[in-house]
Amino acid sequence: MRRLFVAGLAALGVLVAGQASAEEWPTRTLTMINPFAAGGPNDVPARLFAQRMGEILGQSVIVENVGGAGGMNGAERVAKAQPDGYTFLLGTVGTQAQNQTLYKKPVYDSTKDFVSVGLFLEAPLVLVVRKDLPANSMKEFVAYAKANEAKMQFASAGTGSAIHLGCALMNSVTGLDVTHVPYRGANPAMQDLVSGRVDYLCDIVTTAKPQIDAGTVKAIAVLNDTRSSALPDVPTAMEQGFDIRAYTWNAFFLPKGTPEAIVEKLNHAMVEAMKTPAIHERLDAVGLKIVSEDRATPAYLDSFVQSEIAKWADLIKASGISVD
Fold this sequence. Notes:
2 domains; 10-stranded mixed β-sheet
């Protein structure tokens, strides 16, 4: 009986300590894992939110780039981290939705191995072509591509990347069969588009905008249902008669088992950062859109990830794209 009593006290002590720890959190530096190499489109929101969320939480938030395997290396690290709130993931449509079908053996289950914190950002893709390609609209582009598809090539940041799957979606909707050329990142893909070695690319607005503004590539359509604030003169594919929505997004995730009190505090810091005017202005300038506050909840993100997995699974399976 005495042993049971002592064991009960010990268990109670652990429970109380855990509750106190969650209530006091954070007491030291946090690490935000960006699951892609430095210099990519995720770096801008990562560093903006890390700084502001650190101010709100009263502790530093450092950004650590852990690239490789389409973002799975970094995401897996968070999935296996201690559920104490000090390591969290800057997730994307790739790490949390597309990779679940794309990879034959994904190293984590994005619906079971993480706790949703909140969705905070969306970024459309834009169809850009080499500057001398004789097309200035979606209809002209599709007509030209159908007449020349045997000798055309489109670039991507790698097989299975959001950029690749965005173009795969566009090709599927428009009935194109064009050779895919994967690169090790968006930057080398864009460089070859600028030099005319490939014909088109479905890039994230953030990284495409400098080349579009410089006139080294030509923007045909924003692949979304609304125009981008960074490219207000570029019409959407939908405006031009093509139902294409290709995009990426950012959301925060914690390891499974993280106490609810910590999830709530991190979500609060994220939402307050979303309201910061300087962050709005910076992101708006590069074509990144803060989501509405009603979509920034853990519950919404749970259902959103499920729907995104289903949406992209259909395309990935139909296209036959897979990665070992």
